[in-house]
Hints:
- The complex is a heterodimer of chains A (about 110) and B (about 110).
- With about 110 residues, chain A is an all-beta fold.
- Chain A is built from no helices and eleven strands.
- In chain A, the strands form two sheets. In chain A, strands 2, 4, 5, 6, 9, 10 and 11 form a seven-stranded mixed sheet that branches.
Amino acid sequence: xxxxxxxxxxxxxxxxxxxxxxxxxxxxxxxxxxxxxxxxxxxxxxxxxxxxxxxxxxxxxxxxxxxxxxxxxxxxxxxxxxxxxxxxxxxxxxxxxxxxxxxxxxxxxxxxxx
Amino acid sequence: xxxxxxxxxxxxxxxxxxxxxxxxxxxxxxxxxxxxxxxxxxxxxxxxxxxxxxxxxxxxxxxxxxxxxxxxxxxxxxxxxxxxxxxxxxxxxxxxxxxxxxxxxxxxxxxxx
Lengths: 114, 113
């Protein structure tokens, strides 16, 4: 384990469902990230939280909604997704925003939208 | 706009060979260049990193070569092994610390016995 835990590991959901992805780190890091990984865009940054404040939102559709209740937990709420949203969703954390001390990634949630 | 260009997209080498993965950048504010290694079913993990005040850094069989004037850096894997088969990402960050890491598109490496 890397210290960043993502649940669930696999998720299959219909286009009308609502689900949430969870990420947890106890590394004392202050920045947390959501990435989408697919064959077309290998590491696509979605959202960044720095000290619980959202600092980046890379034009992500509103059907993805992040939540960061504290510096150890990060959620990605999903609703009315499309089949093209099927991908591996990775959470990462770092000490410092620029990643100069390394990003620690979780193992990801493999999402399939049917 | 892709800020870090990585090549090749995929690479197949024989065991013992020296695969080389190249990255190029335009932003002169970048001053930290890490490489990440990702195995199937896992997230990327920091492998090795370099700052522009040195031209080369070695850690075990992994070497980063850095050419500041050309704005290019590369990863070399000496005596490659089948266990090195993974996807490799280069990345870069600015000295200001105000922007997250910028990743390349990745190189899928296969080392065959």
